[in-house]
Specification:
alpha/beta; 9-stranded mixed sheet; globular; Alkaline Phosphatase, subunit A
Amino acid sequence: MNDTHLNPPMDRRHFLGRAGLGLGGIALAGLMGRGEAAAVASPFQGVMGATHFKPRARRVIYLFMSGGPSQLDLFDDKPELVRRNGEDLPASVRMGQRLTGMSANQATLPMAGSIFKFGRHGKGGTTMSELLPWTARIADDICVVKSMHTEAINHDPAITFFQTGSQIAGRPSMGAWLSYGLGSSNENLPSFVVLISKDRIDQPLYARLWGNGFLPSVHQGVNFRAGRDPVLFLKNPEGVSAASRRKMLDRLAELSAAQFGDLGDPEINARVAQYEMAYRMQTSVPDVMDVSREPESVFELYGPEARQPGTFAANCLLARRLAERDVRFIQLYHPGWDHHGGLPSGIRRQCGDIDRACHGLVTDLRQRGLLDDTLVVWGGEFGRTNYSQGKLTATDYGRDHHPRCFSAWLAGAGIRGGMTFGQTDDFGYNIVENPVHVHDLQATILNQLGIDHERLTFKVQGRYYRLTDIHGQVVKQILA
């Protein structure tokens, strides 16, 4: 009988795996604080070891406006569209570009000029709508990009594209890539945290948007929720003490190290690393979520909703607290921007949610010296059409999805504040100057973190993958 499968040759992997507690034990020793030398093998350490070049950012706060905010009612003022309000969209402007099924069958596509007034703000004269009076106050801190564009025309693929670099589900999210490459700067909190505004969910936000894809599971985002249990299943069950939990994790570490020695599967270490992180988070999460010691001046800065857990304002305050603790990637989702009808009232509500809080976050970061190395990004998955979906009246209109051009803004960490980049045509339908693709934005974010987006890769199924796929150029013009 051939028993090679029962007693395999003692190759290098098996030798290291069975030496002491094996590589798994080395990794776990680092996680449990059993020596600095052992910490090198921690699954929470980034594979890069060091950045490709000197970074301007240590962390990212990404304010994702899920649903697609109307750039024509917030940042991209189009007087010509107002003058020609109600006229049919010229074929020479549309140029046969595809429409969604929601407006493709309309008899006409009546152009809808914004009913909101625009003004110029800051030293750079940044154009903003009257809907954003607080954001206007930080005009000199932010760079508004008016020439964003994407290929995706529906929500799920469009959001997936921004978060993972692909319209097809299954790729690692941006935060997971950063965790994989740079690792964690705080051993007591995840390197990637997700916060979702409550009471604004009008479309699904799947957990895969902050998933690890084909990267080790330790790099997936952790969703912090409002309420008594910010992280589900974090607390010990009734009757289980911290001491007994510690003993259980120690024994589990030993068993897992032995299993790793036999199988060599890195997911074994990743799972135990997550158990250890959860143990430490039992103390660190309640601390970061407790805003009771924040002074009154802070709540005044973010607005009264900052006292209501789960609101966008409260999540912005938490984002600052997480940034102070060196969480690498902080993702906020604020749904509710999908205004196919009733846009004027809907966008007023949305701007009421986010305007003062965005001002508060950027201002708070600046006052604390954190804006210099914190990159703040604001934007949605696409823009809105310059024509009305459905009936156009003097006070009401809707806008369909528009991937051809839309706006986003960035602040901090080496971004040139007080400037506008890119330009659309007089109808707000096509880009005429400095287009910025989704992959360009992603490449720029990674660049500010000291990462060459072409060099942070992961090989799977015979191919090297990266966040920007095979595209992307750093938008150097917006960098200070």
